[in-house]
């Protein structure tokens, strides 16, 4: 029988900044001047200068051992990065790689009935370009040290080295690959016993086989097996006994494949609703604190509607995978990346990936292995480099040979060479980019699958998955400070140089929140955080619903499950608190959803509206029922019959049709949907935001228009204005140009509304310069936030976080207050912001990214001489008169007493 001794607990630890330990024989003389730590140990957790320390460090452990028989092995579950080991002053061996287990036979060195001294030197290099590192140290806090468990195990002279289980549910069989270390006796036998996991019931099967080789395969028949399913993740235990040794492994009877563009689990299509999980933690950094913590995370994931976690460029700890097996959530596993493409780096990477697959092979929850993520390690040149293309193809073939039972993604998110998953990383934010997002889905993602492959390679019908997308939602800083009893260390961004932009630094908000007048809109950062989370909920809802409406898409993986340090696009914050709207995530992320196609978010009283209904049914089970609908604050309601024969997507024949009722004042409303069976069971709910505005025709007085097009002139006339085409100092002037005549008018005391939605395309724009926001896919824009101060627009339904009420009005340009980088065809161009404009203006509406960085204005009132310019990049010119909110906003800008905005200001004395 095997016996184990845990060496976790108190060790002596000392950093070796001069790397002198070996020179001074610390492995013989003892580690001097150390302090006590508890292993598993990540030295960055010790704080202060160790947070950023890379280099050598030493560990020492003293322990007795009384076992005298068999062979003794020293086991490390993971040490980051390079490990050298001495026992009682004798060199045992070394290991390279920071994520997977390794062991040494210490039978001849271990002292019996005496104190043993175990000495370990860990080296984590500062230059990490050629080692598998993942995002620790490059994006977030570095991880170094003996970060997983250490132990000693006694085994018989002949022992089981590994058991590999390959289930075949179709044949009701189990293939077992057995590897034995040591000499076999002539009539050696192996006893295989299969039981239900954690059950004391009789064995499902018990079977003896002769051992004729140290490396051998067997077939075990399991009649009527209970399959591992998401709704019933049944597990079995396989015990293999050989002589004095035995080993038990847990497995599930399940089969993974793809067919007709869908991933199948046990021959049934499964729509992927996944979250990217980087598995960083606020206190323990890289290891989940407990089994209870893991279970809570998985429960929360399932409550939010997820059926998969993509373990992003990290070899997940075995306990997490065990609970994924047991609780029924799929895992997309992915090795940590390196950076520099060299023979040595690719070998290290291949070794780590191979070790990961061997360690985790028996986990039924794992259904996909990734190789690369976004060409990290391939130097972003896969499309143009045949050597790298061949390397990726060979990697796919070797991994498929190692594990033919799972799907393989060769290069997640970017161009593919040879893959089982045609996945995309597409960052869009809604409502800002809804039109662009639809176009991207229809013309690129599903419109041309071959376009996502390197030239010379093509799609073979692989499932199309959008495996990264997401939107930021800022967390409560007060909760973080309370948890950490102060400011977290990672408020000083721990990433490398490419992650030092202002919007990726939590400290940025401390300066910019008041500097750019966000305090006037939100009052406090805590209020801004709530608004940011509302914006996030609104955006991811729309992005996901557009994917679910398209049957060619096999699923998605949102970025991401939780916040990590400065990156705040998690559906849970870093402390694992649910963000705003958590209870409604299931509405659009659940197995059954009811959606509106082409929602009319802003309508006029009297308008006729038709809204199509789509039902998504991932369970693929037939049902009959109805969609009940109503609009809050009105008498409108109805019911639409549903008869689903089990299709994944059903577009109902009858739309929701109604005439918008008369209302007294503009206001917010909600379209509420309830999908019920004929038996009264609620299957799904959903809500859509609306505004209703009364059509009121009244005279609004005279205004001066200057150089405007005929369309808006007509709309201004229709909406009650008497327009004149000359400049009058007593009237508001509306224009889309700032030529010399207009600027002279303003300086003499005139009031101008400058419709600047065309940004730098405007020929005469005065001293203003503009920043054009990315039209298409953009990770930085997914961190963005558009805001407006509703106090300046009394009676107009506006959220401080600009939402669906301004769906068609959100700007493409802003006036940049902060410096920023403009993407170029060959390199980024550094562009300058104008913080002085913010100082001399009232910022009524604006834009920022991340932690209130990259700030710009989209509606500002600036003093110029004796007059004022109200500059807005909102899309008012093209929507005035037709869009209810655009019409009201421009009317308000015309009537606003802009000079009053500066009355409270005092003149500073220099």
TrEMBL record:
Signal peptide positions (record): none
UniProt xrefs under InterPro entries: Beta-gal/glucu_dom_sf, Galactose-bd-like_sf, GH, GH2_Domain-Containing, Glyco_hydro_2, Glyco_hydro_2_cat, Glyco_hydro_2_N, Ig-like_fold
GO molecular function: hydrolase activity, hydrolyzing O-glycosyl compounds
Domain Glycoside hydrolase family 2 immunoglobulin-like beta-sandwich: 158-254
Ranges for domain Glycosyl hydrolases family 2 sugar binding: 6-156
Keywords per UniProt: Glycosidase, Hydrolase
Pfam family, one: Glyco_hydro_2_N
GO biological process: carbohydrate metabolic process
Annotated ranges, domain Glycoside hydrolase family 2 catalytic: 258-481
Annotated family: Belongs to the glycosyl hydrolase 2 family.
Protein name: Glycosyl hydrolase family 2
Lineage: Bacteria, Bacillati, Bacillota, Bacilli, Bacillales
């Amino acid at each position: 029988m095997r016996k184990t001794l845990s060496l976790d607990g108190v060790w002596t630890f000392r950093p070796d900044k001069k790397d002198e330990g070996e020179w001074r024989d610390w492995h013989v003389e003892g580690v001097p001047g150390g302090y006590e730590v508890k292993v598993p140990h990540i030295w960055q957790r010790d704080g202060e200068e160790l947070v950023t320390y890379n280099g050598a460090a030493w560990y020492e452990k003293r322990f007795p051992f009384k076992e005298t028989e068999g062979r003794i092995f020293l086991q490390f579950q993971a040490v980051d990065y390079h490990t050298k080991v001495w026992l009682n002053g004798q060199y045992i061996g070394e290991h390279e790689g920071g994520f997977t287990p390794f062991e040494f036979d210490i039978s001849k060195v271990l002292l019996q009935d005496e104190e043993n001294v175990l000495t370990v030197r860990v080296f984590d290099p500062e230059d990490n370009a050629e080692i598998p590192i993942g995002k620790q140290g490059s994006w977030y806090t570095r991880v170094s040290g003996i970060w997983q468990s250490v132990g000693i195990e006694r085994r018989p002279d002949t022992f089981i080295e590994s058991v590999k289980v390959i289930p075949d549910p179709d044949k009701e069989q189990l293939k077992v690959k057995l590897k034995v270390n040591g000499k076999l006796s002539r009539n050696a036998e192996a006893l295989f016993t299969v039981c239900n996991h954690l059950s004391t019931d009789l064995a499902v099967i018990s079977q003896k086989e002769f051992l004729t080789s140290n490396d051998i395969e067997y077939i075990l028949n399991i009649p009527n097996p209970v399959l591992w399913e998401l709704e019933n993740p049944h597990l079995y235990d396989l015990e293999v006994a050989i002589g004095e040794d035995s080993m038990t492994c847990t497995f599930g009877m399940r089969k993974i494949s793809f067919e007709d563009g869908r991933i199948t689990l046990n021959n049934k299509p499964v729509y992927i609703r996944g979250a990217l999980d980087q598995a960083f933690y606020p206190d323990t950094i890289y290891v989940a604190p407990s089994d209870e913590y893991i279970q809570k995370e998985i429960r929360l994931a399932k409550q939010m509607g997820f059926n998969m976690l993509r373990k992003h460029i990290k070899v997940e700890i075995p306990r997490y995978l065990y609970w994924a097996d047991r609780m029924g959530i799929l895992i997309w596993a992915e090795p940590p990346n390196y950076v520099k493409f060299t023979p040595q780096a690719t070998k290290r990477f291949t070794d780590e990936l191979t070790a990961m697959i061997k360690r985790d092979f028996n986990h039924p929850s794992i259904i996909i292995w990734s190789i690369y993520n976004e060409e990290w390690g391939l130097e972003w040149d896969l499309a143009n480099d045949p050597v790298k293309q061949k390397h990726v193809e060979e990697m796919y073939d070797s991994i498929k040979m190692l594990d033919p039972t799972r799907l393989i993604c060769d290069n997640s998110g970017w161009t593919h060479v040879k893959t089982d998953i045609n996945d995309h990383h597409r960052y869009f934010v809604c409502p800002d980019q809804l039109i662009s997002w639809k176009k991207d889905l229809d013309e690129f993602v599903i419109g041309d699958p071959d376009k996502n492959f390197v030239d010379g390679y093509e799609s073979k019908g692989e499932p199309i998955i959008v495996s990264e997308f997401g939107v930021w939602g800022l967390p409560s800083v007060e909760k973080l400070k309370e948890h950490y009893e102060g400011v977290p260390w990672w408020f000083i961004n721990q990433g490398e140089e490419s992650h030092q932009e202002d919007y990726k630094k939590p400290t940025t908000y401390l300066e910019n929140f008041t500097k750019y007048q966000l305090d006037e809109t939100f009052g406090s950062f805590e209020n801004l955080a709530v608004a940011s989370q509302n914006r996030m909920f609104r955006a991811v809802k729309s992005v996901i619903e557009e994917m679910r409406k398209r049957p060619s898409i096999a699923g998605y993986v949102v970025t991401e499950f939780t916040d990590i340090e400065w990156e705040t696009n998690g559906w849970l914050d870093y402390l694992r608190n649910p963000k705003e709207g958590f209870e409604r995530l299931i509405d659009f992320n659940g197995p059954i959803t009811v959606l509106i196609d082409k929602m009319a978010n802003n309508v006029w009283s009297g308008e006729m509206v038709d809204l199509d209904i789509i039902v998504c049914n991932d369970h693929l089970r037939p049902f009959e029922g109805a969609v009940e609908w109503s609009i809050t604050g009105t008498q409108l309601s109805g019911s639409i019959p549903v008869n689903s024969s089990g299709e994944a997507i059903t577009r109902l024949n009858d739309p929701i049709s109604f005439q918008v009722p008369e209302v007294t004042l503009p206001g917010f409303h909600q379209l509420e949907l309830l999908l019920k069976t004929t038996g009264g069971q609620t299957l799904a709910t959903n809500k859509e935001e609306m505004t209703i505005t009364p059509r009121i025709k009244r005279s609004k007085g005279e205004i001066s228009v200057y150089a405007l097009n005929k369309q808006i002139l007509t709309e201004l006339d229709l909406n009650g204005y008497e327009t004149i085409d000359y400049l009058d100092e007593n009237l508001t002037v509306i224009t889309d140009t700032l030529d010399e005549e207009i600027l002279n008018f303003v300086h003499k005391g005139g009031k101008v509304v400058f419709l600047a939605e065309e940004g730098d395309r405007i020929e005469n724009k005065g001293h203003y310069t503009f920043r054009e926001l990315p039209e298409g896919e953009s990770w930085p824009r997914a961190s963005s936030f558009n805001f407006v101060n509703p106090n300046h627009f009394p009676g107009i339904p506006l959220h401080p976080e600009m939402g669906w009420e301004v769906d068609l009005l959100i700007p493409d340009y802003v006036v940049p207050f902060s410096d920023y980088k403009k993407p170029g065809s060959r390199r980024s161009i550094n562009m300058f912001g104008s913080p002085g404009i913010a100082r001399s203006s009232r910022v009524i509406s604006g834009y920022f990214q991340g932690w209130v960085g990259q700030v710009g204005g989209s509606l500002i009132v600036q003093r110029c001489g004796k007059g004022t310019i109200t500059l807005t990049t909102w899309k008012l010119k093209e929507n005035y008169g037709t869009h209810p909110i655009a019409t009201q906003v421009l009317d308000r800008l015309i009537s606003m007493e802009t000079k009053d905005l500066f009355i409270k200001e005092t003149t500073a004395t220099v």
